[in-house]
Each structure stands twice: as structure tokens, then as C-alpha cells.
Design goal:
CATH class of the largest domain: Alpha Beta
Number of strands: 15
Number of helices: 9
Radius of gyration: 22 Å
Strand content: 25-35%
Shape: elongated
Length: 293
């Protein structure tokens, strides 16, 4: 069975996602379609990259991921447009990475998805310039046909050209200082949990058993403990964990219900807000100030 995933900013209100699935079922047999998300913020390729980065390793080799977010290609039609930074072309492209295929328009998704990761092969589909009909509903009329070619066994070199550079969406990376990490909320999930860009790897740089305080919402709220699970705290209490993707997450235990509300609403925190972790290793300023003389 061939697995194909769909990630779009189309939502579920309209017929768009149904049309995408119908297009795939009409030309392919024995496929399994998996919806990663259709609630990506419109045109936000970095959010799409976050969703794929968080789960692609769970899929088997040969999976084809179709990313229909900000999918309309931008083509260059003149020398003046080619010299404009805002008019750099965005071609439909394919990334073959860790034995999986990622099909998207080169709008910054690939760079945001890979981050610091190395490897993979990148290809561009430039024949779209000869097929203007593909520009209408491009996820359906361009990205899906490219995915079908892959699944039907066509070699990438037969319909694409190899590329080296791709665009990179603006990413918020944590700032690591001597005794602190300053990160940001990069995603708020359907439970209202606050997912940051601070990784366990970043956290572990400061050593084991080092006291710390996590501040959020302009230091109005704080935590000084990482819990193994949500249920490590009482119902309705705040909790910090490293989630399945290894990212620092702040939540309310079972807060997304009628009695309480998710951490985003209770704390008044939005995507992009700062989360800061202050450490107190031996010899730090705060530690010296607490010594008794």
C-alpha cells in the first residue's frame, strides 16, 4: 500500500480537500491517504514545516508527502522581474529526504523543514511554464500530478531538474546565553498547549540537576520543574513537559474543557510570545546572591 499524506491551508469548510483526495483516488489504486493538517494558517509555510517535522519519522520509507500551503508558483517572465527580490521564482519542487518524498512549491517550506539537517536530493519542476493550466488550484493540478509520477515509478531526473538552493521561511530560533534560553511559542495546538522552539537538547546544555525557572507571558507566570507527563500535576494545574517532538511545552492538565480552558486562553499567550528559561548553575549571579555570609 502506498501512503500519501496531505498538508494544506485549505481548511475543511469548502470542497478543496475532497477534490484533492478524489483526484488521487481517480488515478491511483491501493493507496492510503493520511491527513496531517488542513488547518495551517493561510500561506504559512513555516507552520506546515513544523507539522511535517514533528511526524514524518513515523512514516515508512517511500511515503509521499504533498504540502499544499501557499502552493501557487511564482514564475519569472522578464529580466526586470528576475532582478527583483520579491519576484524570485517559486517552482513546484520535490525533496527526497530520508527515503521519503516531499512535494511542495519552493516558498520557504523546504528550508524551514530541513533546518540544520543535511542531506537529501532537491529537484525543481520547471515545465509548469509550458502548462499554465496547472497554476489554477496548483495543489490539485500540479503537485498531485508530480506525486503521481513518483508513485508510478518515473525517475525524478526524467521530469525535473536537480537543484541545490531553496528558499527558507523565517524561523524563530532560540537565543542561548550564558545562563538562559530565550525562545518563542511557535505553535498552539488544539488543546491550547503552548509549544516552544526550545528543545531538550538546548535545555540539556546547561547540565543535569541545575535549578531553573521558566517564565512566560512577560514573567507573569513561571514554572521551575519539568514533568514527565501532563498527569504528573493535579487536574487544572499548569505543567511543563518535553513533548514527543522533544520541544518544551507548557500546558494545563486537561485544561481544554468546559471547566477551565487551554493554556493559551488562561495565560493570555499567543503564537510568537517569548518563553524564557533562567538557569542558576554554581557560580551564577543569582547563586552568589543567595549565599549566606
Amino acid at each position: 500500500m502506498q501512503i500519501i499524506t496531505l498538508t494544506t491551508d485549505a481548511g475543511l469548510k469548502d470542497y478543496y480537500v475532497a477534490s484533492l483526495k478524489a483526484s488521487l483516488y481517480s488515478v491511483l489504486k491501493n493507496i492510503i491517504l493520511v491527513d496531517i493538517s488542513h488547518d495551517i494558517r493561510p500561506f504559512d509555510s513555516s507552520e506546515a514545516a513544523f507539522q511535517l517535522r514533528s511526524c514524518y519519522k513515523d512514516f515508512p520509507k517511500g511515503t509521499v508527502h504533498i504540502i499544499g500551503v501557499d502552493s501557487e508558483p511564482k514564475l519569472v517572465n522578464s529580466a526586470n522581474e528576475a532582478s527583483s527580490q520579491n519576484s524570485e521564482p517559486s517552482y513546484p519542487s520535490i525533496l527526497f529526504f530520508e527515503e521519503q518524498y516531499f512535494v511542495a512549491t519552493d516558498n520557504g517550506f523546504f528550508g524551514a523543514f530541513l533546518g540544520e539537517k543535511k542531506g537529501g536530493a532537491f529537484y525543481r519542476y520547471k515545465n509548469i511554464e509550458a502548462h499554465p493550466e496547472m497554476l489554477k488550484f496548483p495543489t490539485k493540478n500540479c503537485l498531485i500530478p508530480l506525486a503521481v509520477k513518483i508513485i508510478q515509478g518515473e525517475k525524478l531526473d526524467d521530469f525535473c531538474v536537480a537543484g541545490e538552493n531553496f528558499k527558507i521561511s523565517l524561523l524563530q530560533n532560540p537565543i542561548i546565553e550564558s545562563f538562559s534560553i530565550q525562545g518563542n511559542v511557535i505553535h498552539i495546538d488544539s488543546y491550547g498547549n503552548l509549544i516552544s522552539n526550545i528543545s531538550k537538547e538546548d535545555f540539556d546544555r546547561f547540565g543535569e540537576n541545575v535549578p531553573f525557572t521558566i517564565y512566560y507571558h512577560n514573567k507573569t507566570y513561571h514554572l521551575d520543574k519539568i514533568s514527565p507527563t501532563y498527569n504528573s500535576v493535579v487536574l487544572g494545574d499548569k505543567v511543563a513537559i518535553f513533548n514527543n517532538a522533544g520541544l518544551l511545552e507548557i500546558a494545563i492538565n486537561q485544561g481544554a474543557n468546559r471547566s477551565f480552558g487551554g493554556a493559551d486562553k488562561l495565560f493570555g499567550v499567543r503564537k510568537g510570545d517569548v518563553i524564557r528559561v533562567n538557569f542558576e548553575p554554581a557560580g551564577s549571579h543569582r547563586t552568589l546572591n543567595t549565599l549566606q555570609f
